[in-house]
Design brief:
Layout: H1 2-6, E1 15-19, E2 26-30, E3 37-38, E4 45-48, E5 55-56, E6 59-64
Antiparallel strand pairs: 1-2, 1-6, 3-4, 4-5
The chain binds zinc ion.
């Protein structure tokens, strides 16, 4: 758990739970993702990096601070 906390660089970062628009799979995406995030099931792009906050392509279900 302490190792996990070290991965979060600042309090403003968060995870969002996104529902895939294609297959309906839900997965957690880091809001400041620096790499393209794809659906674990169908590989559709769910988030793209923009240099700051990731642009979320899917349907945001929840934001987890
Ligand atoms: Zn999918």
């Amino acid at each position: 758990m302490s190792e996990w906390n070290k991965l979060i660089p600042k309090p403003s970062s968060s995870f969002v739970r996104v529902k895939c628009p294609k297959c309906g799979n839900e997965q957690l995406i880091f809001s400041n993702a620096v790499n393209k995030v794809t659906c674990n099931v169908c590989s559709v792009v769910l988030a793209e990096p923009t240099g700051g906050k990731a642009r979320i392509k899917g349907d945001v279900q929840a934001v987890l601070e």
